[in-house]
Amino acid sequence: MSAFFRIFSRDVRLAVRQGSALTMTLSFFVIAVTLFPLGVGPELSILARIGPGVLWVGALLACMLTLDRIFQADYEDGSLDQLMVGTLPVELMVLAKILAHWLTAVVPLIIITPVLAITFNMPLDSLGVMALSLLLGSPVLSLIGSVGAALTVGMRRGGVLLSLLVLPLYIPVLIFGVAAVEAAIALLPAGSHLLLLAAFSAGSLVICPIASAAALRLAVE
Amino acid sequence: MTLIADNLRCIRQDRVIFKGLGFTLGPGQGIWVKGKNGAGKSSLLRMIAGLLKPSKGTITWKDVDTQEEPESFRQDFRYIAHQDALKPVLSVRENIEFWAQYHGGDKVAGALKLFELEHLQDTPAQILSAGQKKRTNLARLVASPAPLWILDEPLSSLDTHYIDLFTDLLREHLEGGGLALLATHQTIDLQRVTIFDLDNLKGVV
Fold it and tell me: Which of A27, A39, A126, B147 is most solvent-facing, going by the fewest CB within 10 Å?
């Protein structure tokens, strides 16, 4: 377990020291989301209607920007080989890196989302559900993203392929994430949607590290 | 504690790199893998390290197939590859410390001292020279000791002083009962090392 924690803490430390990636992700998220009110116009009812979807799509795309960070640098500098010849099973090594990615690339987006939601005239009562839906659903973004990142590691221009692989798999999370917030706005129970998001995360937690590890084994060969 | 490679075959993208390769490496012994560029030196070392699956043949460590129990085998070797596996924004000490702890070792201070890196320990790896990076990479061998060393071009970028220093370290490792499998284009002067030439593959050492 010590090796798991070492990888996790090293990746967090690297993300903090290379602050540019985090700053760029947050900047992209804020700018992309802010463009919608400018493009759609100041009609408050329309903004409130599209707000949940825009915020979820924005978070999803911002997360995409950082997915290659999970394995690419380690592949290029030889660390991936060294990590794979350690005593920690590759699946757990992958999980440690996914956890660090989620904490450093996705959690900041969740923290800033309620502030952006206000600019969309979303009811204050729904902000909690918005953040909760992202908190429960966003691990899927890192988990599924890690499979795409592992499959495209070492490829030239792998970014586009990564998007094509991963984005369709994000659709269920997007649907139920937005549905949860819309239910909260309509004063309907959002619990079932949130539970489904949690189930997606739990399922991905089991499957994705195994799939990513298998893809990495192929990549290092 | 013996490493046995038996009838190994390596195929990369439909090209046979080597076949029928075998050797036995016991305590205190080293094998110096030689060969032209593309002869398969790195492929052989990666195969032994478990990063490349043999198309045919087996690798046995302590009488156990390494593919059947990879985790226990990984505890017993350190692999030094072409790339230095250093993170540019981490200091020399942080880099060595991470790999030492990842492999369950804690002899960071000794490693820094041996490779004369103490004055550079707080320096970010991104401003090190190629030789300093190589020394930082090699320091992992001392920071987290293991009986088997798999070394791919360990002497590249090193000046004569550090080549001598590393050769002495390798000699001590072998005299202490360790094993080493190394590929290098540079000449090393060690009595306990057998040359294994991939260009004139005879089969078994």
Answer: A39
Residues B107, B139, single domain; the answer is yes
Least CB–CB distance from B51: residue in A2, A17, A81 = A81
For residues B127 and B156, state if they share a domain. Answer: no
| Cα B149–chain centre separation | 5
**Any domain includes B9:** yes
Give the Å distances, CA to CA, from B19 to A1, A54, A134, B46, B105.
39, 57, 53, 15, 36
Structural domain contains residue B164: yes
Q: Which of A18, A85, A88 sits opposite B79 (nearest CB)?
A: A85
B102 CA: distance to closest CA in chain A (Å): 5
Indicate if B72 and B1 belong to the same structural domain.
yes
Q: DSSP string spanning B23-72? A: EEE-TT-EEEEE-STTSSHHHHHHHHHTSS--SEEEEEETTEETTTSHHH
Residues of A in contact with B82 (CB under 8 A): 78
Q: Are residues B10 and B63 in the same domain?
A: yes
- List, for residues B109-136, the tens digit of each pLDDT value: 999 999 999 999 999 999 999 999 999 9
| SS3 state of residue A172 | helix
Domain count across chain B: 2
Phi, psi of B86 (to 5 degrees): -110, 145
ipTM of predicted assembly, 2 dp: 0.91
A181, A190 in Cβ contact below 8 A? yes
* Per-residue pLDDT tens digits for B169-198: 999 999 999 999 999 888 877 777 888 888
Query: Is the pLDDT assigned to residue B204 strictly greater than 60?
Result: no
